[in-house]
Design goal:
Blueprint (H helix, E strand, L loop, with lengths): L1 H5 L3 E5 L4 E7 L5 E8 L1 H5 L6 H23 L8 E7 L3 H18 L3 E5 H13 L7 E6 L4 E8 L2 E7 L5 H11 L6 H9 L25 H11 L13 H30 L3 E5 L6 H14 L2 E3 L3 H4 L9 H6 L16 H5 L10
Parallel strand pairs: 1-4, 4-5, 6-9, 9-10
Antiparallel strand pairs: 1-2, 2-3, 6-7, 7-8
This protein binds 5'-O-[(R)-(carboxyoxy)(hydroxy)phosphoryl]adenosine and zinc ion (ZN).
Zinc ion (ZN) binds next to helix 5.
């Protein structure tokens, strides 16, 4: 029984925003399966996540996604040791679907349920990707569609927020900029593609707060406005066609550079302030090649251990729900009164798209 129990894995469920995901992970943090059903196409027409559509899609997909994860892991449901669910922060309707599914499974199998924090889980993706090599403390950077924050991370479950965006999240800025440039959703990968071959110095876009050494805060909304004026100068007719060719490439490259510079300045300041010898990174924007390379260059220049997960572990997934093992190993779990905590993150609230203006 002893050896058998030690391989009993955890089922993690992730429905915080617009990905329905489930993963099966062993106590030794081996990811036996990780399934992500993206809703990108569903939301593309609105160029942002529509919460009501997201919840409905989660309801349709959650059971097939969980079944697929268990099947691919090659385990039987009765072998599961616990269920882990991302319960904060996120869209309330989306979070509730994952939590309800998790509770039903935990009740049916009479196994513990344990809630986890989605933002800390993004950082834990580094532990999944790089193995047991982390030597805390780290500066943690989470840059995604709903969050852009810097943390002083003393352990997997112990992170103090040092600063972050005071308006849009970095991913949200990419999404809105892509929309201004006539590109698709999600905007980050689209801008990255469009920027290839562009001159990042073609347009001098603002880097608000980047030179402010008093604060670890960032701001991206002015950058978006500056881009808007470049695309369509004040007073220009509303039906200016979106930029094409080299002009598009230069705008996309200049925008991408401005976002990356803004983030890098504050990561470096956070390293100076905390004295940490390493940086761990997570969230969808960490899939961006320029950001990855710039962070790695910073690491070489300052002799820091910089850990960035592979792209599939940067964007939302349930494998990072392996963080729940950290709580289970402390003997902690939650009862059936576990509830969601959507949070009041301003960036997440701002992210709601303008549902009056879908693309055709
Ligand atoms: O972590 P994530 O999948 O979901 C949230 O928790 O928000 O992040 C999604 C965000 C989107 O805003 C998307 O545009 C951005 O990450 N993103 C990128 C890239 N891939 C995804 N941003 C810049 N470059 C990328 N390659
Ligand atoms: Zn996320």
């Amino acid at each position: 029984m002893g050896w058998y129990k030690s391989i009993m894995p955890l089922l993690a469920i992730e429905t915080t925003c617009d990905e329905t995901a489930a993963a099966v992970i062993t106590r030794s943090r081996e990811v036996l399966s990780s399934v992500v059903a993206s809703q990108e196409q569903l939301h593309a027409r609105w160029r942002g996540v529509v919460p009501e559509l997201a919840s409905r899609a989660h309801v349709e997909r959650i059971i097939p996604v969980i079944d697929e994860a268990v099947m691919r892991a090659g385990v039987a449901t009765r072998d599961l040791e616990a269920v882990a669910v991302a319960v904060r922060p996120g869209l309330v309707g989306s979070l509730l679907v994952g939590l309800s599914a998790g509770k039903a499974i935990a009740a049916a199998l009479r196994i513990p349920i344990v809630g986890y924090d989605h933002v800390l889980a993004h950082l834990y993706a580094c532990r999944i990707a790089h193995g047991d090599v982390l030597t805390y403390p780290y500066v943690g950077l989470v840059a995604s569609g709903g969050h852009t924050s810097l943390f002083h991370v003393r352990g997997p479950l112990d992170a103090e927020r040092l600063g972050g965006t005071i308006d849009d999240a970095a991913g949200e800025a990419f999404d809105k900029a892509a929309s201004l440039l006539g590109l698709g959703y999600p905007g980050g990968p689209e801008i990255e593609r469009a920027a290839a071959g562009g001159n990042a110095k073609a347009h001098r876009l603002p880097r608000p707060l980047a030179n402010d050494r008093e604060r670890l805060d960032m701001s991206f909304s002015g950058l978006k406005t500056a881009l808007r004026y470049l695309v369509r100068p004040p007073g220009a007719s509303a039906d200016v066609p979106p930029p094409q060719g080299q002009k598009l490439a230069d705008l996309a490259a200049s925008f991408q550079q401005a976002v990356v510079d803004s983030i890098l300045a504050k990561v470096e300041l956070a390293v100076e302030r905390t004295g940490c010898r390493g940086v761990i990174v997570g969230g969808g924007v960490a899939a961006n090649t320029l950001l990855r390379e710039s962070l790695e260059a910073l690491g070489r220049r300052r002799r820091l251990q910089v850990l960035i997960p592979p792209r599939s572990l940067c964007t939302d997934n349930a494998a990072m729900g392996a963080i729940a093992w950290e709580r289970l190993e402390r003997g902690e779990d939650d009862g059936f009164d576990l509830d969601v905590r959507p949070g009041t993150d301003r960036a997440a609230a701002n992210r709601r798209p303008d549902v009056r203006s879908p693309t055709s």
